[in-house]
Each structure stands twice: as structure tokens, then as C-alpha cells.
Amino acid sequence: MHTWSDIVPPDKRTPGIVAIDPVIFPILDKLYERRIKRLNAQAHALGENGEYYRFLSQIVHFQQQNLALSPLQQDEITAIHAVISREQSNEQLENRLLDITCWQTAYARLITQLEAFLPQEMLQRLSGLSTKPQHLARLVVHLLRAEYQLVNPGSAVVIWAALSACWAQAITSLQKNAVTHPIAQSVVCPCCGAPPVASLVLDGAREGLRYLQCSLCETRWHRVRAVCIACEKTSQIDHWTLDDTKSAIQIETCGDCKSYIKTFRLDYDPTLEAVADDIGSFTLDKVAEAEGFLRIGINPFSFPA
Fold first, then answer.
1. Considering the chain, what is the average pLDDT of its residues?
2. How many folded domains does the chain comprise?
3. Which residues have CB under 8 Å from 223's CB, separation 6+?
4. Are residues 92 and 216 in the same domain?
5. Residues 235 and 162 in one domain
6. What is the pLDDT of residues 112-125, one digit of tens each?
7. Is 8 inside a domain boundary?
8. How many helices (H) and strands (E) does the chain have?
9. DSSP H helices in the chain
């Protein structure tokens, strides 16, 4: 494993044989560090046009700080686990979210850290939500239910980031006890139920294995390659790139259900980071969507309008 990697090494119980872990939990501090590095690199490459990447880097820096300075207490971890593991109505979910204060505190602190980077109108809107916890919790419910059209896209990025800072901590602390949903054919995270941001083909000891990465808690879960993540069919799977077939960033499309997912070939380029490099390769998404394919999952830094 690379020293900077946030993916834990596999357990080799038998020499030369690597078991396929159904779920891989990230090393969060290293994950945030890699994401910051990739966002800053893209900001630098764009010069004056890289302001949004610098803004996103501040968000991830906050998440990293929150991990170090505000570790979750056991009762908070238990409360978050209860929220993600139960079937509940929107009203029940909203009430349970209101009872968990860590994500609300993280949201308020994040707004303070972003003050210098936000337009005044957006700052006022986001700050106003801090004083309306029930409305804020209702927006979180919409996001968790994938009702993105009911939340301002800019607000969604900040709300999701605060929620992710806490959910990722909780899931990482719980490890295998966090798995509450089936894994084998799951389109959503088996731990928190959120959609993936992308598909990763790993390098190193797990070279060639595919994992989906959660857009909320950062968990990776195994999915067999050359099979559509959405419909499980194999007959019309294609891979798209903008340059050559060895490109480290690809689009996998399914002609049967017309879905697609971004794939990052870490076996070709281990420095790639799913969230940051997804934003930097939206041109590929436009090509796929122009052909009538619909994306599986979301990028937490780019919610649909």
C-alpha cells in the first residue's frame, strides 16, 4: 500500500491469496489529505479560474479539522447508526436528525470557516439555516431521500459536507457493525444508504478489483466488474474515454438500462481521488448524457439543479 493511501491493506490469511473484502473502510485523515491535494492541484492548474476548487478545498480542510478536533462521542455514534439502520417516515427521520446535534454544530462551524469564500447572499442564506434547525433537518431529509430538486444546489454542498463529516466518523468507528444493507448487488452504500460518487478499480494487493465509493460516509463496497451496477446485465457494457483505452478516467455505460458511472482506474494512476477528479472530468459526463445515459450516483460537490 502507498504510504499516502487511505485504503487499508487486505488481510492475507493464506500466503499469496487475497480475500475479497466486501467493504473497505477508509482512513479518513489520509482520504481528506488526498482530496485537498487533488483539489489544490486543479485550482493551481486553472489559475484565476480555479476559485471553486479552492473553496472546495476549504470544505475538506474543515472536515479534516473536525475529525481531529471534534471526535464523535459514543452516544453520537449510536444515534447516527440508529438513523441509518431503521426504516422510517420522513417525519421520523427529521425528528431523529434534530436530536443529533453534532452535525448541526459542524454545519454552523463550517459556515464560519467559509465566510471569506461565500458571496454575501449565499452566506446569509446558509447562516439563516443555522437558526432554523427544523428547516435545516428537513433539507437533510430531502437530500437523504435523493429529492435534490427540493434543495438549493449551493446549500446542498455545504449541508452534505457537514453531515458527511459526522456520518463518515460514525461509520468508520463502527466498522463492520455499520453494514446494515445487502452488499453484493447494492447500488447504494451498504452502511448509510447514500449513492456512490464513482467506481474505483484498485491497484496494489487488490489490483483489478472494483469498489464503489460512497458519496456520504466514504465507505467502499465491492461490485463485480463488467456487470451493470444498476440492472446487473452484461450484454451492452461499454467503456468511454476522451483519449485512449488506457485512460485512468473512464465512463462505464449500460445499453440495457441506459445508466452510466464514472470509473477511476487506480491501477493506471493511483494518485486519482474520486470526488476531486470527478469534478475535473465532467466533460466525460456531458458526452455520456448527450447520448441519453443517466448517471448512477452523485458528486457531493456538484448537486443537480
1. 92
2. 2
3. 186, 199, 210, 211, 212, 229
4. no
5. no
6. 999 999 999 999 99
7. no
8. 10, 8
9. 28-46, 51-69, 74-85, 90-99, 102-114, 120-130, 133-144, 153-174, 274-279, 282-290
